């Protein structure tokens, strides 16, 4: 009996020894099996589209908040007797608050989740706009703008992370631009409202805009990546299934997420991993994109659009010019969303920087002829508007949305929270510097040298895009992470993709 039992045990061990490699091979084959094109494209992404639109609504409020100073400036000066210096502080308190929000946002998204952090952002917006709307002294305005800035900093950090972790690779570029697109809608709404309302009523409009997300947030899930990091695998799978459609096969993507999370858990890495050579390189790329985004001068242009058109001598009303710029800003992001998954990130950055270099050069030449020479620029009074349109179009095609999109894409999952926090804080530090110094620089060296200076900086942005920035089009976050870490990999498409690339099937 003992010999028979021993023989059975030996046979069982042999079978297990043979089955285990087969099971491992079967799991690997399942990850690499050909993808199946979906029957209906829209049905496959409608949940992702709704979730993206929901969180992007907060971006609309960010855009509105960014543009507020421009249409409100005249009525603020009339009611409070503000000087240019005091107006510049109202503009600058927002990026200062955003700097604080950016520094704290990484901790919030890692501890409370992406979804609930975005909800907190929206509540802060509502409080800030109520404070501004009922302001009796300038101190209320300052406090309101600081709270607005904190909300902007947290929101601009958490939204790219949410969209990067919920949208599948094939449409991450186009859907990932929705926050920027709705941000531009917010700017346009603010400019249009400014033609009818003064500063207090503009604050009321901002408060009203803060309400819809308070409803939409209850219909969207937390990101699967965050839920998995907290050990809630079942909830993570349900969230992924909801995002990819009820009948989608999410096995491959879920297994891939589990593998990445297990690797991260096994490493038990501290925050010091942020300063490893490869992670510092990736963080430097994001910081470089943020630097060039802000030092292109875009926020100075948005904050002081009305003032710039007044000084340009344009025959059109400055409010009309401002609205036209807002419309171009709005439309151009949708153009970018159509092109980004076809042309890629790098090509749009080339087009973006080249357009801005051209328009800034022309603007500088116009103001040089107007303010320095005796040349009559009256026949060219249309030129500033056209140049601004090209400038805003170029910015919104590339350097507006892509730095935020790539922040969510190229930062590795294990450092995404703290690294995004550093990147956002850096971005808003640059915004504060540009916003606070723009009028001072323009008064010191003239508008012509100011625009030429920004043009030279954008030339550096073009070189940086060509030499340093990686392409991430059509790649999953896992593949991007492995590729940028120097690990060779075969790209695997999401099962529930919109339109499989030839190399993915």
Automatic annotation (TrEMBL):
One of its GO terms (cellular component) is plasma membrane. InterPro entries: MFS_dom, MFS_ERD6/Tret1-like, MFS_sugar_transport-like, MFS_trans_sf, MFS_Trehalose_Transporter, Sugar/inositol_transpt, Sugar_transporter_CS. It is found in: Cell membrane. GO terms for molecular function: sugar transmembrane transporter activity. This is Putative sugar transporter. SUPFAM superfamilies: MFS general substrate transporter. NCBIfam families: SP. It holds the Pfam family Sugar_tr. Residues 51-473 form the Major facilitator superfamily (MFS) profile domain. Belongs to the major facilitator superfamily. Sugar transporter (TC 2.A.1.1) family. Trehalose transporter subfamily. It is a multi-pass membrane protein. Coiled coil: none annotated. The chain crosses the membrane at residues 49-67, 87-109, 116-136, 142-163, 175-195, 201-220, 282-304, 324-340, 347-369, 381-405, 425-445, 451-469. It comes from the Eukaryota. Keywords: Cell membrane, Glycoprotein, Membrane, Sugar transport, Transmembrane, Transmembrane helix, Transport.
């Amino acid at each position: 009996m003992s010999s028979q039992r021993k023989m059975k045990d030996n046979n069982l061990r042999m079978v297990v020894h043979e089955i285990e490699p087969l099971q491992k091979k079967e799991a690997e084959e399942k990850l690499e099996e050909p993808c199946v094109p979906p029957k209906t494209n829209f049905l496959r992404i409608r949940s992702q589209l709704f979730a993206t639109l929901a969180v992007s609504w907060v971006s609309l409020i960010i855009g509105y908040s960014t543009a507020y100073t421009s249409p409100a400036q005249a009525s603020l000066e009339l009611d409070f007797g503000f000087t240019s210096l005091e107006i510049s502080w109202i503009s600058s308190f927002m990026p200062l608050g955003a700097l604080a929000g950016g520094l704290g946002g990484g901790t919030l998204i890692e501890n409370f989740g992406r979804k609930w952090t975005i909800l907190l952002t929206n509540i802060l917006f509502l409080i800030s706009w109520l404070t501004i709307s009922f302001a009796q002294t300038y101190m209320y305005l300052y406090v309101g703008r600081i709270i607005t800035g904190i909300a902007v900093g947290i929101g601009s950090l958490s939204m790219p992370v949410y969209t990067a972790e919920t949208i599948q690779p094939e449409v991450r570029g186009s859907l990932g631009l929705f926050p920027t697109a709705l941000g531009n809608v917010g700017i346009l709404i603010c400019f249009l409202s400014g033609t009818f309302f003064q500063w207090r009523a503009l604050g009321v409009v901002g408060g009203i805009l803060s309400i819809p997300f308070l409803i939409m947030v209850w219909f969207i899930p937390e990101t699967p990546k965050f839920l998995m990091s907290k050990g809630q695998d079942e909830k993570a799978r349900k969230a992924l299934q909801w995002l990819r459609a009820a009948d989608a096969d999410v096995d491959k993507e879920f297994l891939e997420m589990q593998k990445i999370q297990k690797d991260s858990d096994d490493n038990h890495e501290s925050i010091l991993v942020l300063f490893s050579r490869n992670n510092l390189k990736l963080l430097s790329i994001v910081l470089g994109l943020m630097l060039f985004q802000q030092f292109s001068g875009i926020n100075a242009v948005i904050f002081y659009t009305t003032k710039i058109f007044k000084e340009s001598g344009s025959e059109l009303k400055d409010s009309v010019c401002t609205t036209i710029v807002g419309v171009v800003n709005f439309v151009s992001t949708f153009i970018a969303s159509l092109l980004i998954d076809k042309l890629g990130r790098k090509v749009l950055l080339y087009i973006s920087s080249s357009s801005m270099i051209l328009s800034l050069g022309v603007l500088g030449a116009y103001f040089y002829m107007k303010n320095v020479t005796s040349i009559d620029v009256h026949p060219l009074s249309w030129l500033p508007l056209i140049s601004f349109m090209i400038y805003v179009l170029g910015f919104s095609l590339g350097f507006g949305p892509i730095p935020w999109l790539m922040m969510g894409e190229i930062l590795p999952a294990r450092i995404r929270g703290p690294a995004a926090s550093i990147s956002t804080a850096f971005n808003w530090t640059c915004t504060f510097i540009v916003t606070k110094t723009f009028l001072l620089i323009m008064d010191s060296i003239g508008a012509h040298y100011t625009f030429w200076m920004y043009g030279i900086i954008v030339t550096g942005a073009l070189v940086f895009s060509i030499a340093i920035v990686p392409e991430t089009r059509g790649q999953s976050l896992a593949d991007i992470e492995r590729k940028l870490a120097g690990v060779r990999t075969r790209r695997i498409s999401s099962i529930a993709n919109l339109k499989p690339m030839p190399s993915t099937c």
